[in-house]
Please model this.
Amino acid sequence: MHCLKCGREMEEGQVFCQDCLLDMGRHPVDPNAVVFVPKAGTSANQKKSPRKRQRSPEEQVLKLKRKVRLLTVLTILMFALVAAMIFTVALVYQRYQFPRGQNYRSVVMTTTVETSEVEMQ
Model:
């Protein structure tokens, strides 16, 4: 049997296919409207029934495993990138905090004695 609207093949006992029923549900027609029913197979916009290949459970599991692997790799790369950024910021901070070439151990601490103490002696 063919759909009266689009001409697609379907099971016996049905007048319209599921796609046409959904389309007609979105655009209701006045019950008193005159309807022209075309002859079977003469519709200009006959739709081909798109068939998606049903995947077996094994194929579905493999596809999900690939997605998990991809997400795991992306997560590891993201953490590595964040760690590299933190290391770089710490290195730059350390360089500006303690500039190169300055030896802090060679700095001599001098104490100043007030003049009043010198005069007392």
Summary: The mean pLDDT is 78.
